[in-house]
Amino acid sequence: MNAAYRFDDWESPAPAAAAPVAPTSAPAPSTAVTQSLAPINAADKRIVNGKADINQLAPFKYPWAWEFFLKANRNHWTPLEISMAQDVHDYHHKLSPAERHVFENVLAYLTTSDILAMRNIGLAVMEKMSAPELQIYQARQVYEEALHTWTYQHCIESIGLDQQEIYNRYRVVPEIHGKIALANRRLERVMRADFDLTDRANLHEFALSYFFFAVIFEGCWFYNGFTPIFALQRRGLMKGAAEQLQYIMRDEVLHCAFGIRVVRELLKEENLTLDPEALRELWAEAEAAETAYAGHILRDPILGYNAELHVQQFRFIANRRARQVGVEEPFPGAGNVLPWLDEQANLRKEKNFFETRVTEYQTGGALAWD
User: Tell me, what DSSP letter sits at residue 305?
Assistant: First the structure.
Protein backbone atom coordinates (compact mmCIF):
# COMPACT_ATOMS: atom_id res chain seq x y z
CA MET A 1 0.00 0.00 0.00
CA ASN A 2 1.23 3.46 -0.83
CA ALA A 3 2.41 5.06 2.41
CA ALA A 4 0.52 8.22 1.51
CA TYR A 5 -2.76 6.28 1.89
CA ARG A 6 -1.97 4.31 5.06
CA PHE A 7 -4.16 4.98 8.06
CA ASP A 8 -2.95 2.15 10.32
CA ASP A 9 0.58 3.31 11.11
CA TRP A 10 -0.12 5.46 14.14
CA GLU A 11 2.93 4.04 15.97
CA SER A 12 5.42 4.96 13.23
CA PRO A 13 7.75 7.77 14.27
CA ALA A 14 7.30 11.07 12.54
CA PRO A 15 9.99 11.96 9.98
CA ALA A 16 12.85 13.99 11.34
CA ALA A 17 12.24 17.71 11.13
CA ALA A 18 14.70 20.03 9.45
CA ALA A 19 16.98 21.98 11.77
CA PRO A 20 15.42 25.31 12.75
CA VAL A 21 16.85 28.43 11.19
CA ALA A 22 18.00 30.98 13.72
CA PRO A 23 16.08 34.27 13.52
CA THR A 24 18.02 37.23 12.24
CA SER A 25 16.59 39.43 15.00
CA ALA A 26 14.84 38.87 18.31
CA PRO A 27 11.04 38.71 18.14
CA ALA A 28 9.14 41.70 19.42
CA PRO A 29 7.63 41.25 22.88
CA SER A 30 3.95 40.26 22.90
CA THR A 31 1.53 43.14 23.33
CA ALA A 32 -1.64 41.00 23.35
CA VAL A 33 -4.18 41.98 25.99
CA THR A 34 -6.83 39.56 27.18
CA GLN A 35 -10.27 41.12 26.75
CA SER A 36 -13.80 40.04 27.62
CA LEU A 37 -16.86 40.56 25.45
CA ALA A 38 -20.38 41.44 26.35
CA PRO A 39 -22.85 38.51 26.41
CA ILE A 40 -25.22 38.23 23.49
CA ASN A 41 -28.98 37.81 23.41
CA ALA A 42 -30.51 34.99 21.36
CA ALA A 43 -33.26 37.39 20.30
CA ASP A 44 -30.64 39.26 18.26
CA LYS A 45 -30.20 36.29 15.94
CA ARG A 46 -31.59 36.65 12.42
CA ILE A 47 -31.79 34.45 9.32
CA VAL A 48 -29.35 36.85 7.61
CA ASN A 49 -27.64 40.05 8.77
CA GLY A 50 -27.72 38.92 12.40
CA LYS A 51 -25.85 40.75 15.13
CA ALA A 52 -25.41 37.82 17.51
CA ASP A 53 -22.34 35.57 17.81
CA ILE A 54 -22.28 33.04 14.94
CA ASN A 55 -20.18 30.72 17.15
CA GLN A 56 -22.73 30.56 20.00
CA LEU A 57 -25.25 27.82 19.31
CA ALA A 58 -27.68 28.11 22.19
CA PRO A 59 -30.06 29.42 23.34
CA PHE A 60 -31.85 28.77 20.05
CA LYS A 61 -33.89 31.39 18.32
CA TYR A 62 -34.86 28.84 15.68
CA PRO A 63 -35.35 25.56 17.61
CA TRP A 64 -37.06 24.05 14.58
CA ALA A 65 -33.73 24.22 12.70
CA TRP A 66 -32.06 22.13 15.41
CA GLU A 67 -34.91 19.62 15.18
CA PHE A 68 -34.26 19.33 11.44
CA PHE A 69 -30.62 18.52 12.21
CA LEU A 70 -31.58 15.85 14.75
CA LYS A 71 -34.14 14.36 12.39
CA ALA A 72 -31.64 14.23 9.53
CA ASN A 73 -29.16 12.34 11.72
CA ARG A 74 -31.81 9.75 12.55
CA ASN A 75 -32.07 9.20 8.80
CA HIS A 76 -28.43 8.21 8.23
CA TRP A 77 -27.73 5.66 5.49
CA THR A 78 -25.24 4.74 2.74
CA PRO A 79 -25.81 3.25 -0.74
CA LEU A 80 -23.68 0.18 0.01
CA GLU A 81 -26.44 -1.20 2.26
CA ILE A 82 -28.77 -1.83 -0.70
CA SER A 83 -28.13 -4.67 -3.15
CA MET A 84 -27.95 -3.77 -6.84
CA ALA A 85 -27.55 -7.36 -8.08
CA GLN A 86 -31.08 -7.70 -9.45
CA ASP A 87 -30.81 -4.29 -11.14
CA VAL A 88 -27.82 -5.47 -13.17
CA HIS A 89 -29.92 -8.33 -14.53
CA ASP A 90 -32.97 -6.11 -15.08
CA TYR A 91 -31.03 -3.46 -16.98
CA HIS A 92 -29.32 -5.89 -19.35
CA HIS A 93 -32.11 -8.44 -19.82
CA LYS A 94 -35.51 -6.95 -18.92
CA LEU A 95 -35.60 -3.24 -19.72
CA SER A 96 -36.75 -2.12 -23.14
CA PRO A 97 -34.61 0.41 -25.06
CA ALA A 98 -37.06 3.15 -24.03
CA GLU A 99 -36.79 2.14 -20.38
CA ARG A 100 -32.99 2.09 -20.51
CA HIS A 101 -33.09 5.56 -22.07
CA VAL A 102 -35.26 6.82 -19.18
CA PHE A 103 -33.08 5.22 -16.52
CA GLU A 104 -29.78 6.50 -17.93
CA ASN A 105 -30.94 10.06 -18.48
CA VAL A 106 -32.57 10.39 -15.07
CA LEU A 107 -29.25 9.34 -13.47
CA ALA A 108 -27.32 11.71 -15.78
CA TYR A 109 -29.47 14.64 -14.66
CA LEU A 110 -29.62 13.77 -10.96
CA THR A 111 -25.91 13.27 -10.40
CA THR A 112 -25.08 16.70 -11.82
CA SER A 113 -27.97 18.32 -9.94
CA ASP A 114 -26.85 17.06 -6.54
CA ILE A 115 -23.33 18.41 -7.04
CA LEU A 116 -24.87 21.76 -7.96
CA ALA A 117 -27.05 21.58 -4.84
CA MET A 118 -24.05 20.79 -2.65
CA ARG A 119 -22.12 23.78 -3.98
CA ASN A 120 -25.08 26.10 -3.69
CA ILE A 121 -25.73 25.26 -0.05
CA GLY A 122 -22.04 25.41 0.86
CA LEU A 123 -21.19 28.58 -1.09
CA ALA A 124 -24.36 30.61 -1.52
CA VAL A 125 -26.65 29.84 1.38
CA MET A 126 -24.88 28.43 4.43
CA GLU A 127 -22.24 31.16 4.45
CA LYS A 128 -24.92 33.86 4.47
CA MET A 129 -27.02 32.40 7.30
CA SER A 130 -26.17 34.20 10.51
CA ALA A 131 -27.65 31.80 13.10
CA PRO A 132 -25.54 28.71 13.88
CA GLU A 133 -28.52 26.38 14.26
CA LEU A 134 -29.36 27.11 10.62
CA GLN A 135 -25.78 26.55 9.49
CA ILE A 136 -25.48 23.25 11.36
CA TYR A 137 -28.46 21.72 9.56
CA GLN A 138 -27.11 23.02 6.26
CA ALA A 139 -23.73 21.44 6.99
CA ARG A 140 -25.60 18.15 7.27
CA GLN A 141 -27.40 18.98 4.02
CA VAL A 142 -24.07 19.53 2.22
CA TYR A 143 -23.01 16.06 3.37
CA GLU A 144 -26.28 14.54 2.19
CA GLU A 145 -25.93 16.04 -1.28
CA ALA A 146 -22.47 14.45 -1.47
CA LEU A 147 -23.98 11.17 -0.28
CA HIS A 148 -26.62 11.36 -3.02
CA THR A 149 -23.91 11.94 -5.63
CA TRP A 150 -22.12 8.86 -4.31
CA THR A 151 -25.38 6.92 -4.60
CA TYR A 152 -25.87 7.77 -8.27
CA GLN A 153 -22.23 6.90 -8.92
CA HIS A 154 -22.76 3.57 -7.15
CA CYS A 155 -25.77 2.82 -9.37
CA ILE A 156 -23.92 3.82 -12.55
CA GLU A 157 -20.85 1.78 -11.64
CA SER A 158 -22.80 -1.28 -10.42
CA ILE A 159 -24.77 -1.55 -13.65
CA GLY A 160 -21.66 -1.02 -15.77
CA LEU A 161 -22.68 2.12 -17.64
CA ASP A 162 -20.14 4.18 -19.58
CA GLN A 163 -19.30 6.75 -16.90
CA GLN A 164 -17.75 9.34 -19.18
CA GLU A 165 -20.73 9.22 -21.52
CA ILE A 166 -23.33 9.38 -18.71
CA TYR A 167 -21.61 12.20 -16.84
CA ASN A 168 -21.21 14.24 -20.02
CA ARG A 169 -24.89 14.13 -20.93
CA TYR A 170 -25.71 17.26 -18.95
CA ARG A 171 -23.27 19.08 -21.24
CA VAL A 172 -24.30 17.62 -24.58
CA VAL A 173 -28.03 16.91 -24.21
CA PRO A 174 -29.83 20.28 -24.56
CA GLU A 175 -32.87 19.24 -22.50
CA ILE A 176 -30.73 18.20 -19.53
CA HIS A 177 -28.36 21.13 -19.93
CA GLY A 178 -31.31 23.54 -19.96
CA LYS A 179 -32.30 22.73 -16.38
CA ILE A 180 -28.73 22.96 -15.10
CA ALA A 181 -28.15 26.23 -16.99
CA LEU A 182 -31.33 27.74 -15.57
CA ALA A 183 -30.28 26.79 -12.05
CA ASN A 184 -26.80 28.24 -12.53
CA ARG A 185 -28.25 31.49 -13.88
CA ARG A 186 -30.69 31.83 -11.00
CA LEU A 187 -28.08 31.09 -8.35
CA GLU A 188 -24.85 32.51 -9.77
CA ARG A 189 -24.99 36.06 -8.36
CA VAL A 190 -26.02 35.07 -4.84
CA MET A 191 -23.12 32.62 -4.64
CA ARG A 192 -20.69 35.52 -4.46
CA ALA A 193 -19.19 36.04 -1.01
CA ASP A 194 -19.44 39.83 -1.43
CA PHE A 195 -23.18 39.79 -2.21
CA ASP A 196 -24.43 42.50 0.17
CA LEU A 197 -27.63 41.42 1.91
CA THR A 198 -28.04 44.73 3.72
CA ASP A 199 -29.14 46.12 0.35
CA ARG A 200 -32.92 45.59 0.03
CA ALA A 201 -32.79 44.82 -3.69
CA ASN A 202 -30.08 42.22 -3.11
CA LEU A 203 -32.04 40.79 -0.19
CA HIS A 204 -35.08 40.32 -2.44
CA GLU A 205 -32.90 38.65 -5.09
CA PHE A 206 -31.44 36.33 -2.45
CA ALA A 207 -34.92 35.41 -1.18
CA LEU A 208 -36.11 34.76 -4.74
CA SER A 209 -33.02 32.67 -5.54
CA TYR A 210 -33.40 30.66 -2.33
CA PHE A 211 -37.10 30.19 -3.19
CA PHE A 212 -36.01 28.81 -6.56
CA PHE A 213 -33.49 26.47 -4.94
CA ALA A 214 -35.60 25.13 -2.07
CA VAL A 215 -39.07 25.22 -3.58
CA ILE A 216 -38.50 24.52 -7.29
CA PHE A 217 -35.10 22.86 -7.65
CA GLU A 218 -35.42 20.58 -4.62
CA GLY A 219 -39.15 20.68 -3.88
CA CYS A 220 -40.41 20.15 -7.45
CA TRP A 221 -37.64 19.06 -9.82
CA PHE A 222 -36.09 16.55 -7.41
CA TYR A 223 -39.37 15.36 -5.92
CA ASN A 224 -40.84 14.82 -9.39
CA GLY A 225 -37.53 13.73 -10.89
CA PHE A 226 -37.44 10.32 -9.20
CA THR A 227 -40.88 9.38 -10.53
CA PRO A 228 -39.78 7.64 -13.77
CA ILE A 229 -37.62 5.23 -11.73
CA PHE A 230 -40.46 4.66 -9.27
CA ALA A 231 -42.71 3.83 -12.26
CA LEU A 232 -40.27 1.02 -13.10
CA GLN A 233 -40.17 -0.10 -9.46
CA ARG A 234 -43.96 -0.42 -9.38
CA ARG A 235 -43.59 -3.04 -12.13
CA GLY A 236 -40.88 -4.92 -10.22
CA LEU A 237 -37.96 -3.48 -12.21
CA MET A 238 -34.78 -1.71 -10.98
CA LYS A 239 -35.90 -2.11 -7.38
CA GLY A 240 -32.43 -1.56 -5.90
CA ALA A 241 -31.96 1.79 -7.64
CA ALA A 242 -35.51 2.79 -6.71
CA GLU A 243 -34.86 1.92 -3.07
CA GLN A 244 -31.75 4.10 -3.18
CA LEU A 245 -33.90 6.94 -4.53
CA GLN A 246 -36.46 6.40 -1.77
CA TYR A 247 -33.81 7.21 0.80
CA ILE A 248 -32.66 10.18 -1.24
CA MET A 249 -36.24 11.38 -1.51
CA ARG A 250 -36.62 11.18 2.25
CA ASP A 251 -33.59 13.47 2.60
CA GLU A 252 -34.93 15.81 -0.07
CA VAL A 253 -38.30 16.12 1.65
CA LEU A 254 -36.44 17.40 4.71
CA HIS A 255 -34.33 19.76 2.57
CA CYS A 256 -37.43 21.20 0.94
CA ALA A 257 -39.33 21.52 4.22
CA PHE A 258 -36.37 23.29 5.84
CA GLY A 259 -35.99 25.64 2.86
CA ILE A 260 -39.69 26.53 2.87
CA ARG A 261 -39.51 27.28 6.60
CA VAL A 262 -36.46 29.50 6.05
CA VAL A 263 -38.16 31.39 3.21
CA ARG A 264 -41.28 32.02 5.31
CA GLU A 265 -39.24 33.16 8.33
CA LEU A 266 -36.98 35.35 6.17
CA LEU A 267 -39.90 37.13 4.49
CA LYS A 268 -41.56 37.73 7.86
CA GLU A 269 -38.37 38.79 9.64
CA GLU A 270 -37.32 41.23 6.91
CA ASN A 271 -40.86 42.48 6.15
CA LEU A 272 -40.24 41.34 2.58
CA THR A 273 -42.70 40.36 -0.15
CA LEU A 274 -41.63 38.37 -3.19
CA ASP A 275 -42.57 40.23 -6.36
CA PRO A 276 -45.52 38.34 -7.95
CA GLU A 277 -44.35 39.05 -11.47
CA ALA A 278 -40.86 37.76 -10.66
CA LEU A 279 -42.43 34.60 -9.23
CA ARG A 280 -44.57 34.07 -12.33
CA GLU A 281 -41.47 34.38 -14.50
CA LEU A 282 -39.63 31.91 -12.28
CA TRP A 283 -42.42 29.34 -12.50
CA ALA A 284 -42.75 29.79 -16.26
CA GLU A 285 -39.03 29.16 -16.77
CA ALA A 286 -39.11 26.13 -14.50
CA GLU A 287 -42.13 24.65 -16.27
CA ALA A 288 -40.58 25.19 -19.72
CA ALA A 289 -37.34 23.51 -18.65
CA GLU A 290 -39.21 20.60 -17.05
CA THR A 291 -41.43 20.15 -20.13
CA ALA A 292 -38.41 19.98 -22.46
CA TYR A 293 -36.68 17.54 -20.09
CA ALA A 294 -39.75 15.29 -19.88
CA GLY A 295 -40.02 15.31 -23.67
CA HIS A 296 -36.46 14.02 -23.91
CA ILE A 297 -36.39 11.34 -21.22
CA LEU A 298 -39.87 10.11 -22.20
CA ARG A 299 -39.68 10.63 -25.95
CA ASP A 300 -41.02 7.07 -26.10
CA PRO A 301 -43.55 6.47 -23.30
CA ILE A 302 -42.94 3.57 -20.94
CA LEU A 303 -45.66 1.39 -19.51
CA GLY A 304 -47.70 3.46 -17.04
CA TYR A 305 -45.77 6.68 -17.52
CA ASN A 306 -45.32 9.39 -20.16
CA ALA A 307 -44.17 12.98 -20.61
CA GLU A 308 -47.65 14.45 -20.21
CA LEU A 309 -48.13 12.76 -16.81
CA HIS A 310 -44.70 13.98 -15.72
CA VAL A 311 -45.46 17.63 -16.54
CA GLN A 312 -48.96 17.50 -15.05
CA GLN A 313 -47.54 16.13 -11.80
CA PHE A 314 -44.90 18.87 -11.78
CA ARG A 315 -47.69 21.47 -11.91
CA PHE A 316 -49.59 19.79 -9.08
CA ILE A 317 -46.50 19.66 -6.86
CA ALA A 318 -45.66 23.28 -7.74
CA ASN A 319 -49.09 24.39 -6.47
CA ARG A 320 -48.53 22.47 -3.24
CA ARG A 321 -45.16 24.10 -2.65
CA ALA A 322 -46.57 27.56 -3.39
CA ARG A 323 -49.31 27.04 -0.80
CA GLN A 324 -46.72 25.90 1.74
CA VAL A 325 -44.76 29.13 1.28
CA GLY A 326 -47.91 31.26 1.19
CA VAL A 327 -47.71 32.61 -2.36
CA GLU A 328 -50.07 32.38 -5.32
CA GLU A 329 -50.47 28.96 -6.97
CA PRO A 330 -48.73 29.05 -10.37
CA PHE A 331 -50.95 26.43 -12.06
CA PRO A 332 -54.53 26.71 -10.72
CA GLY A 333 -56.56 23.55 -11.13
CA ALA A 334 -53.62 21.17 -11.74
CA GLY A 335 -54.63 17.69 -10.60
CA ASN A 336 -52.79 14.93 -8.78
CA VAL A 337 -52.35 12.51 -11.69
CA LEU A 338 -49.86 10.28 -9.81
CA PRO A 339 -51.32 9.82 -6.31
CA TRP A 340 -48.95 6.93 -5.62
CA LEU A 341 -45.91 9.25 -5.75
CA ASP A 342 -46.51 10.55 -2.22
CA GLU A 343 -46.34 6.98 -0.94
CA GLN A 344 -42.72 6.89 -2.05
CA ALA A 345 -41.90 9.77 0.31
CA ASN A 346 -44.22 8.98 3.20
CA LEU A 347 -42.32 6.01 4.59
CA ARG A 348 -44.57 5.68 7.62
CA LYS A 349 -46.84 3.74 5.27
CA GLU A 350 -43.99 1.67 3.82
CA LYS A 351 -43.36 -0.79 6.66
CA ASN A 352 -41.77 -3.40 4.41
CA PHE A 353 -39.35 -0.80 3.08
CA PHE A 354 -37.19 -1.18 6.20
CA GLU A 355 -37.37 -4.96 6.03
CA THR A 356 -35.58 -4.95 2.66
CA ARG A 357 -32.49 -3.38 4.18
CA VAL A 358 -29.33 -5.40 4.78
CA THR A 359 -28.67 -3.30 7.88
CA GLU A 360 -31.78 -1.73 9.38
CA TYR A 361 -31.51 1.75 10.87
CA GLN A 362 -31.91 1.59 14.61
CA THR A 363 -33.73 4.90 14.74
CA GLY A 364 -35.26 5.13 11.29
CA GLY A 365 -38.73 4.43 12.66
CA ALA A 366 -38.46 7.49 14.90
CA LEU A 367 -38.70 9.88 11.95
CA ALA A 368 -41.79 12.06 12.01
CA TRP A 369 -43.18 13.94 9.04
CA ASP A 370 -44.89 17.30 8.96
Answer: B
User: Among 40, 47, 42, which residue's Cα sits nearest to residue 130?
Assistant: 47
3-state secondary structure 68-113: HHHHHHCCCCCHHHCCCHHHHHHHHHCCCHHHHHHHHHHHHHHHHH
Q: Which of 223, 217, 212, 213 is nearest to 248 (CA)?
A: 223
d(CA 114, CA 20): 47
Phi, psi of 53 (to 5 degrees): -85, 115
Domains and CATH numbers, the chain: 78-353 (1.10.620.20)
Q: Is the dihedral of CA 161, 167, 173, 174 positive or negative?
A: positive
pLDDT digits (tens, 9 = 90+) for 18-49: 566 665 666 666 666 667 888 878 888 888 88
CB-based contacts of 337, cutoff 8 Å, min separation 6: 309, 312, 313, 316
Whole-number CA gyration radius for the chain: 24
Neighbours of 308 (CB within 10 A): 14
Tell me, what DSSP letter sits at residue 364?
Answer: G
Long-range pairs for 210-213: beta carbons < 8 A, 24 or more residues apart:
210/125, 210/259, 210/262, 210/263, 210/266, 211/263, 211/274, 211/279, 211/282, 211/325, 212/183, 212/186, 212/187, 212/282, 212/286, 213/117, 213/120, 213/124, 213/125, 213/183, 213/186, 213/187, 213/259
Amino acid at 226: F
| Alpha-carbon gap, residue 263 to 16, rounded angstroms | 55
- Distance between CA atoms of residues 118 and 9, nearest Å: 33
Residues near 212 by beta carbon (within 8 Å), at least 6 away in sequence? 183, 186, 187, 282, 286
> Could you read off the pLDDT of 104-143 as tens digits, one per residue?
999 999 988 877 878 777 777 878 888 999 999 999 999 9
